[in-house]
Amino acid sequence: MSGLDIRELECFLVLAEELHFGRTGERLYLSQSRVSQLLRSLESRIGARLVERTSRRVRLTPVGERFRDRLRPAYDGLRAAVDDTRAAARGVEGSLRLGFQGTANDHLMNAVALFQERYPACAVEMVEVPLSDPFGGLRRGEADLAAVLLPVVEEDLVVGAVFSRQPQTLAVSARHPFARRSSISAEDLADCVLIGVDEPAPRYWRDAHAPAVTPAGRPIPAGPTVGTLQEGLTLAAANRGAMLLCRPSAEYNRRAALAYVPITGLPDSALGITWCRDHETARVRAFAEVLAEVSAAPIAIGAAGAA
């Protein structure tokens, strides 16, 4: 396509998100008339209407929806290429948004300290990732990379260093019968209500952290679902159900109303550093390398982890 105008493409993508000419103009620092002008110019190049606009609403045409779906990954890739090249030319600088679930653990914070030492021109900003939305922040650009609980099988995400492998424990009310046990087996979960995780976390991920059956196939009663670790611990303390979490999280979240009982027969929990394949930059690669280096070294367990 001759005379391709990147501003037209950017304007269309923002309009496809906002479905409002005024808000699109505000995001791009343009007048509504300029937004309309850019859209008309793009539609003229393509030879089809991309947006339907009435006095009550704005929506994409079927052609516009197809164009948005094809354009978005290409545009994101172009921006990532520019950012990557700029970072390589200048060195690793600017800011890096690092997501974490629950609590940033020792591995992660040691990596942050080493990264800041090696790349003092790049500031690390910590962003909490909701338990129920482990990947959404990465896709929305709210975090550049995130330490999330495994498993991660998303095709658009890359999993780097895997770290903080820890046995799982069960958080229960101090009044629960399990609270007096020194340990339980995975089969004992059939005798308690298990707190689950809300959507939009994908089904396989929710099932991994609140299984529906024991390893032997016995059904586990499903309890309420939560969006955050603290919501789950509050429900467990109120004896509304039990919640699975890793040992470091149990140690960090000690409270009188809760008991943490070790479980045998379940896979260890683990964290993985994760980022969008199309949003990879020199900063992301540099931090992933530092975390892999830190994770390979012995580390004492302290305040840590996600659920």
TrEMBL record:
The keyword DNA-binding applies. It holds the Pfam family LysR_substrate. InterPro entries: LysR_HTH_N, LysR_subst-bd, WH-like_DNA-bd_sf, WH_DNA-bd_sf. Belongs to the LysR transcriptional regulatory family. It comes from Streptoalloteichus hindustanus. This is Transcriptional regulator, LysR family. Keywords: DNA-binding, Transcription, Transcription regulation. Coiled coil: none annotated.
